[in-house]
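Tutorial, part two.
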Amino acid sequence: MSRFFLVRNFLSVKTATAIAEQYSVEVPSVFSIEADSEEYFKKVSSSVSLSIPVLQTEPINWLFERFNYLRHYKELFQSSVKIADLFKKYNVTELFVNYPVHEKDALYVKVAKRLGIHVSFYEEGSCFYTGGRGRKKNIISEIKFWMKHTSLWFIGIQRGYGVSADNWYSLLPIEKRPWHKVTISYDVRDYSGIKYLFLSRPVTLDFPSVSIELQIKSILKFVKKIPAGETLFIKFHPRETEDLKRIIISELDKLAVDVIVKTFSDEIPAEDVVFNMPANGIVCGFDSSTLIYGYAINKNVTYCSVLSDLRKHDTMGELENLYHVYKKEFKHIKFI
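Running the prediction step on this input gives:
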């Protein structure tokens, strides 16, 4: 018997570890990390306990770009066989998925259900509470969405949080049942010198209609709230490239003349940083899920977002969706 966790980032490692330690501790766990590069895999896997086997997830995302899964159905079938063999190799009795809106995760769910393996959904981040990801709001995009959704359903792949799951695990309460509360622990570190923290993400990669200039302009809105002479630490997302980091820091150095801008270089979850920040510190970001959990982690810190204007430039509508959900459900988040 074993539990198989699909893992995407530092937060999911921390959450998956907490589940493994809090529920059915006698059952061993296996972590499978999705990574587009060896560098990203090494970063995320380095945060996993040495007692837990770590695998690199089968790189099959390309199959779900456009309608590749129909043109390359043989490869899709072969991937299903590989996943089934993996489950059998580790004698998997429960699959933990943290992003069922993605087709790749949905394929793992399909194989698990066919083999009689229990399926559980666990904390992924903001998507877990908003129920999905956005898409462009026009007739053509809607037609494309439903064409893909229907064709996936026809071959037995059902995506989204509407899919039946045997268990739900999350940090914050949700309406899904049966629900299990996850309590994660935080590393104690000396971050008393970090008063101002910005949590970045690859906005231009995830939302192509948002330019790097708009991303930097949004960060500058937060910079203007910081007193002259203070230091702003930017924690970049593991998926942000070194080139992108250099561009952002370089531009902020030129434009934020009264504030010192530094990269936060420790490769740890943002939640650990927030936990150790001093009273009256300020954490800002775009749509980081850390803003959602923040108040439960450190009540002495202020949490804010720069989505107010940026959301208007996202043609997919996802940032617009997140903005309204955050504003309605998470009153502790202030919008700049």
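The two ends are 49 Å apart (CA to CA). In part three we will examine how such features are distributed along the chain.
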